[in-house]
DNA sequence: CAGTGGTCTAGACCACTAG
DNA sequence: TAGTGGTCTAGACCACTGA
């Protein structure tokens, strides 16, 4: 385990356990260096991680403080809060509608940077949150990378399987979103009415080496969809 | 000017000028160290900045590569791409509907962490993109921080004025969003129909020292609203 | 002006990739 | 196995905050 990762985890746990609120002051750098017996840069690296994650903010000349917003029930749009945490917190579940190997659409091939003759796994599923429909999801996985999928895997967390099971390292994602009206088919799956609002999200996920491996199109139920983003400016 | 900031700017310009595409390889760390005559950590810091900004990705054992998505016309939801760039690229304009000093609503006071007896600047404006209505925006600025505003300022970029004019340093923002249907009033302002879809975004902006100074509620025209997010996972 | 976080260095060693 | 980026150190110096 990386030292800075470990320090970040410890600090986050500490904040969680002691239920520290926005603005609570953490120990100064000197103390953290001594406490964990590491150099200044290592502590700094850990704090940068937490800052990116939206857990703390640092003020030069003053100290390190807890950052925590007041609202519950919002899903993080940047999945930097951890997959497992999300799954637990929101009791997500899935129902699989389709799973097969096929040729990609032109659109999918373009986004995955493959030929329309290459194979992809096609996954279509509905996701539920607290027992309500959350979204309708269609995904294309490059088969030469994600070599095997089955119904059991995709009912659980696909990404967890990709990292743990296949030993692949996920790097980054490009996500595009806009708002529109539900088509009849989407409305039926989400148990809403045609013409109701929807949030439509397309994402291209890449491995750490930059190779795209998943192109997904997700239509969210507007009633259930509350998102948040913590940004540094 | 910070060295790592300068290096990051230079590299970004280089990529822009040479129109490097996704996957293009940049010089290795050694070369960048020599080229800019700085230590390894400094180059690393510059590259971390660019990585966070979604400009490059690094692969251990392999190199540093350009990251660039293929879609145009999408607005970045994390304003980490720079305000000025956005304004230029999208030809944003504003029409002011209201500007006054008043007492905050309970909601605004709560989010700004002030008393309902404190003064706030209230701003209501419509923003246009390429001459079309983009959004309807209501903002509350803590008056003790943002001490002065006038119509001219808020017709241009408020944030630019806050940093340049008032010399304040903006730190981070918490943003909450969901999808809903337009009310009659919103529809009128946005030149759409009541019941049409909308993207509704609430943000709380904080100074670098953690103090909230702006609570804003924005309703986007669904036709014009295309957003993207570049995330690291 | 004491104390805090931010920048930067020089160098050791490690983990991974690709030929 | 040579070359690449990632981690970590110890320490100097700088910029900012708050009493």
What does the model show?
Chain A is of the alpha+beta class and 233 residues long. Chain A folds into 2 domains: 3-66, Arc Repressor Mutant, subunit A; 75-228, Chorismate lyase-like (Chorismate lyase, 3-Layer(aba) Sandwich), CATH 3.40.1410.10. Helix content of chain A is 30%, strand content 36%. Chain A is built from 8 helices and 11 strands. In chain A, the strands form 3 sheets. In chain A, strands 5-6-7-10-9-8 form a 6-stranded antiparallel beta sheet. In chain A, helix 1 (3-17) packs across helix 3 and helix 2 (29-36) packs across helix 3. The first copy, chain A, is globular and about 60 Å long. The mean pLDDT of chain A is 94. The interface between A and B is large, with 52 and 52 residues. The first copy, chain A, binds a DNA duplex (19 and 19 nucleotides) through residues 2-4, 28-30, 38-42, 44-45, 47, 58-64, 209. Chains A, B: This is GntR family transcriptional regulator of bglA. Chains A, B: It holds the Pfam family GntR. Chains A, B: One of its GO terms (biological process) is negative regulation of DNA-templated transcription.
Outline of the structure:
Chains A, B: One of its GO terms (biological process) is negative regulation of DNA-templated transcription. The structure is a homodimer of 233-residue chains. With 233 residues, chain A is an alpha+beta fold.
């Amino acid at each position: 385990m990386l030292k800075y990762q470990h320090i970040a985890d410890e600090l986050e746990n500490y904040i969680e356990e002691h239920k520290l609120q926005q603005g609570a002051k953490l120990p100064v750098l000197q103390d953290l260096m001594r406490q964990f017996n590491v150099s200044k840069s290592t502590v700094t690296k850990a704090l940068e991680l937490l800052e990116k994650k939206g857990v703390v903010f640092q003020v030069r000349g003053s100290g390190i403080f807890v950052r925590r917003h007041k609202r519950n029930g919002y899903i993080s749009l940047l999945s930097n809060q951890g997959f497992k945490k999300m799954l637990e917190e929101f009791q997500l579940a899935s129902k699989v509608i389709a799973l097969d190997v096929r040729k990609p659409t032109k659109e999918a091939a373009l986004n995955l940077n493959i030929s329309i003759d290459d194979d992809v796994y096609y996954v279509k599923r509905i996701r539920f949150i607290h027992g309500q429909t959350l979204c309708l999801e269609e995904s294309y996985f490059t088969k030469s990378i994600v070599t095997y999928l089955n119904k059991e895997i995709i009912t659980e967390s696909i990404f967890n399987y990709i990292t743990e099971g296949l030993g692949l390292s996920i790097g980054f994602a490009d996500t595009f979103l806009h708002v529109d009206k539900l088509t009849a088919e989407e409305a039926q799956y989400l148990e809403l009415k045609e013409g109701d609002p929807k949030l439509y999200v397309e994402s291209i996920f890449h491995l750490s080496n930059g190779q795209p491996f998943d192109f997904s199109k997700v239509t969210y139920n507007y009633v259930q969809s509350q998102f948040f983003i913590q940004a540094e400016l």
